[in-house]
Prior knowledge:
The chain is built from 9 helices and no strands. Residues 153-158 have low confidence and may be disordered. The protein is mostly helical. The longest helix has 30 residues, at 116-145. Helix content is 64%, strand content 0%. It has helices at 10-14, 21-27, 31-37, 46-66, 72-82, 85-94, 105-110, 116-145, 152-155.
Amino acid sequence: MFNHADRPDLEEVIGHTFAAPGILNRALSRKAYCQEQGHPDTGHMDALATLGDAVIELLILTRLVEQGGSNKGEISVQKMDLVNMSILRRAGETIHLHEYIHWGNGENRMHIWSSGRVLAECIEALVGAVYLDGGLSAAGHVMDNIGLFPTETEGKPE
Length: 158
């Protein structure tokens, strides 16, 4: 774990500098935190997580097709193997994302980030924010940097 002074800048970790830093702050803010701080209901990550989920799926599917996938069923199965809570959680753990999130007091006490679903949602929110800030190319770059894309051999249909 990092203390705040030693913690690397998240933008450096993911390889994307936000043109609109407010979108990053939103991606890092849980609903409970925003409610406790009196922030507007639009200031939390939930919508960005929904958007990020779609962006991740789109970019993974694009990569699979670019790598030669042509069978709808096989591509769908590969996508499910590559876009799941365990993969997203592992990416979040790898970059220590929980240390950048603004948690609600109860979430912080309970270490809610240890739930795979919660950390996966945080990764989705981050990717959604990158997409809004820099487009699909930027989101793809970040996904590469945090290990969400299959390698050439992992993604190729057999």
